[in-house]
From TrEMBL:
CDD domains: GT4_PimA-like (cd03801). The keyword Glycosyltransferase applies. Residues 47-202 form the Glycosyltransferase subfamily 4-like N-terminal domain. Gene3D superfamilies: Glycogen Phosphorylase B. Keywords: Glycosyltransferase, Plasmid, Transferase. This is Glycosyltransferase subfamily 4-like N-terminal domain-containing protein. It comes from Limimaricola hongkongensis DSM 17492. It comes from the Bacteria. The keyword Glycosyltransferase applies. One of its GO terms (molecular function) is glycosyltransferase activity.
Length: 430
């Protein structure tokens, strides 16, 4: 039985004729005007904002005119060719954390009219909507006749489901809304194969391009040890935020098991908000690790290579989510062996040739830490294979190549043809 749940309609893209006239097959992508909508603080040194910066810079390198709408929070950074536009944050909304939160929902609600105002005043050829901004674009696109691309760094229904015990019907509604946004899009960008499959399931036939994150290590920065990262003996290192889904508690417990079994060295943790750092310090003290755990707090992205160079082993203990952590790509490029949980968030990119993969349990983590600290040959073998893999598949050059091909093959031709996608309309078959 086929039931129409919303009337289908089509709308012409406002600039379709102009785009067709501007497209030059020999020169490649024409200089189009795009608005990236990123409902995050910008710039802050964490996953999605880093990915947004890479996307904006990639579009500029293709000759596009780029505006970026983000929350009014974060550092001002130099991005030639990118105009940063801010969405105001009401009192009490500052310090928006990663992932889903009611504070984030409130900040999104303020961003929606700001986005509408921009679409009304400026003639954009395309909106690239990051994460939940796809829902804003789904609502406003038909009104202002501007197509959008979903930029999927995570599944919003999964984020909410991981944080709250949702009734089944609520989870189904959230998934249906996510699918509707995908079906209304011109195309989609994802950061990993699992999210690419999700988008294809939501919208069969939708052009989808996976743009994996890349190494953030700058060879020009050198490897001199920072003053706050000089330790005797082997070092197990984690870099990233300290939200629960990252599994840093698991890493701490695993390190405690390794220490109990006689392992030497230190656990060094870089990143995290003050509250998370304090909670982790209390947990380290409870486990009797004391001075064996160093919590350094946030450090500049530009120095990531210098810190990783001080590690003996690097770790990604993530326990939730589909997307592969951004840190993994810098870890693979660090020349240090990677210890990670054997979960889909990692195994869609990692395998036993380039990483030590273990079950997400403290005992398994502890045994692997001890083995990696003790086995020089194993460390060298994993690190060499990992660096070879990242240079071939996850370098900045590979990212730009994939983005350029996607724009030229899938995006510009559909824009130039005035591709009439079906916004807010679909059939549910049952």
């Amino acid at each position: 039985m086929s039931v129409t749940v919303w009337p289908k309609f089509r709308f012409p893209f406002r600039n379709g004729a102009r785009l067709a006239a501007r497209e030059d097959g020999a020169a490649g992508v024409a200089p189009l005007r795009v608005l990236i909508v990123a409902p995050q603080p910008f710039f802050v040194p964490r996953g999605t904002p880093i990915a947004v910066r890479a996307l904006a810079e990639g579009l500029v390198s293709e000759g596009w005119e780029v505006d970026l709408l983000a929350f009014d929070e974060g550092d001002a950074i130099a991005m030639p060719g990118v105009t940063l536009r801010r969405s105001p944050l009401l009192p009490g909304l500052r310090g928006v954390p990663p992932g889903f939160s009611l504070r984030k929902v409130a900040a999104d609600a303020v961003m929606l009219p700001r986005l509408a105002l921009l679409l009304a005043r400026r003639r954009y050829d395309l909106v690239i909507a990051v994460e939940e901004a796809a829902y804003m674009a789904m609502l406003l696109g038909p009104i202002f006749r501007v197509p959008y691309i979903c930029d999927v760094d995570s599944s919003i229904p999964e984020q909410i489901g991981d944080k709250y015990d949702l009734p089944g019907w609520v989870a189904r509604v959230l998934s249906a809304v996510e699918a509707r946004a995908a079906r209304g899009a011109l195309a989609a960008i994802t950061c990993c194969p699992a999210l690419e499959r999700l988008m294809r399931d939501h919208a069969p036939g939708l052009p989808v391009q996976t743009l994996e994150d890349v190494t953030l290590i700058d060879p020009a920065a050198g490897t001199a040890p920072p003053r706050d990262c000089r330790f005797e003996g082997p070092v197990l290192m984690y870099i990233g935020n300290l939200e629960g889904y990252q599994g840093v508690d698991l890493l701490l417990e695993g390190f405690a098991r390794a220490v109990a079994d006689g392992a030497p060295g230190h656990l060094v943790i870089i990143g995290g908000a003050e509250a998370h750092v304090a909670a982790l310090r209390a947990e380290a003290d409870r486990l009797g690790l004391g001075a064996r755990v160093a919590l350094l707090g946030p450090r500049p992205i530009e120095a990531i290579g210098q810190y990783l160079a001080q590690a003996t082993v690097v770790a990604s203990p993530r326990v939730q989510g589909r997307n592969t952590p951004m840190k993994v790509y810098s870890y693979l490029d660090s020349g240090r062996p990677l210890l990670a949980t054997r979960l889909p968030t990692h195994t869609q990119v990692l395998d036993d040739e380039i990483a030590c993969l273990v079950d997400p349990a403290p005992d398994a983590m502890g045994r692997a830490i001890g083995q990696l600290f003790a086995d020089d040959g194993l460390r060298a073998r994993l690190a060499t294979a990992a660096r070879r893999r990242v240079q071939a598949e996850y370098s900045p050059e590979a990212y730009r190549r994939k983005l350029s091909r996607f724009l030229r093959r899938d995006v510009v031709p559909r824009l130039s043809a005035g591709h009439a996608h079906e916004a807010l309309g679909a059939e549910t078959r049952g």
